Amino acid sequence: MIQTADTYHVAVLLRESVDGLDIKPDGVYVDVTFGGGGHSREILSRLGKKGHLYSFDQDADAEKNIVDDDRFTFVRSNFRYIKNWMRYYEVEKIDGLLADLGVSSHHLDDDSRGFSFRFDAPLDMRMNKRAGKTAADIVNDYGETELADVLYLYGELKNARKIAAALTKARQEKRIETTGDLIQATEHLLQKEREKKEMAKLFQALRIETNHEMDALREMLNGARDLLKEGGRLSVITYHSLEDRIVKNMIKAGNAEGKMRQDFFGRTEAPFKPVNNKPIVPTAEEQAQNPRSRSAKLRIGERNGDER
């Protein structure tokens, strides 16, 4: 399959998420999940000559979609380092940040990366192929209890302990190297009527652990909180409850845990005010055209000036 920017990843909630940024033509914006460049191109289309967009992606494949525009800077890095990179580019404050979290269509459709159970491929799952442990390393090297915790926490699998035990037993006979090996070791534990959903949860859990996605999300949101100027907007699309909870907490309380904090005078600190109290979801038409958008939720927050 020949990948183009349009087929690499279909931008989800494109209009709604970019509208949520309330773009100022001469503003500075950040798209922390460049991918196929759909959201970035829409942001650029609304910027004037003095505006600028910085877009992050740690996957080398995304560089094929780079936009040729003087107002655009591509940053090949994990978005968790946003504060460091903005300091590098001498950007003190930004007007808005957009994030389309989760795994792109490109990753799911690439039969060599191990993100999907539709293909028998090396059990890799790294967004950044240049560094870090693979999903195979996690499955083979983690202790049974540690592995069960990952599957329960990030996959919300009720039978996480049984699956971890099955993987521990299977790897004693031979190392689990491929997605096929993983499926063979676990499919007997999955309910037939929910087999695809549970397998998707299993793959999700391993992908999140492989890429340290929750830690990266927390660091990125903390960075966004500190970088956004008064009135600046945070527009984030999530695809599962773990991500959504963290984003909701950040907009509500200014931290990933959702803990309301008070200053010396007992006043509640609130760095953001929600623009939408209920998450925005794709229309029925968008869900029909792009089934992978079905679980998407968009939350938008606006930066307060005095944090109260």
Q: What's a concise summary of this model?
A:
This protein is an alpha/beta fold and 308 residues long.
Which helices and strands appear, and what pairs or packs with what?
Layout: H1 5-8, H2 14-19, E1 28-31, H3 38-45, E2 52-56, E3 72-75, H4 82-88, E4 94-100, H5 105-109, H6 135-141, H7 144-155, H8 160-173, H9 179-186, H10 195-211, H11 213-227, E5 228-238, H12 241-253, E6 261-262, E7 268-269, E8 272-274, H13 284-289, E9 297-303
Helix pairs in contact: 7-8, 7-10, 11-12
Describe this structure in words.
It is a single chain. The chain is of the alpha/beta class and 308 residues long. Helices cover 40% and strands 15% of the residues. The protein is built from 13 helices and nine strands. The strands form two sheets. The protein has a seven-stranded mixed β-sheet, sandwiched between helices. A two-stranded antiparallel sheet has the order 6-7. Strand 1, helix 3 (38-45) and strand 2 (52-56) form a beta-alpha-beta unit. Helix 7 (144-155) crosses helix 10. The chain is globular. The N and C termini lie far apart (51 Å). Mean pLDDT is 89; it is low at 1-6 and 105-109.
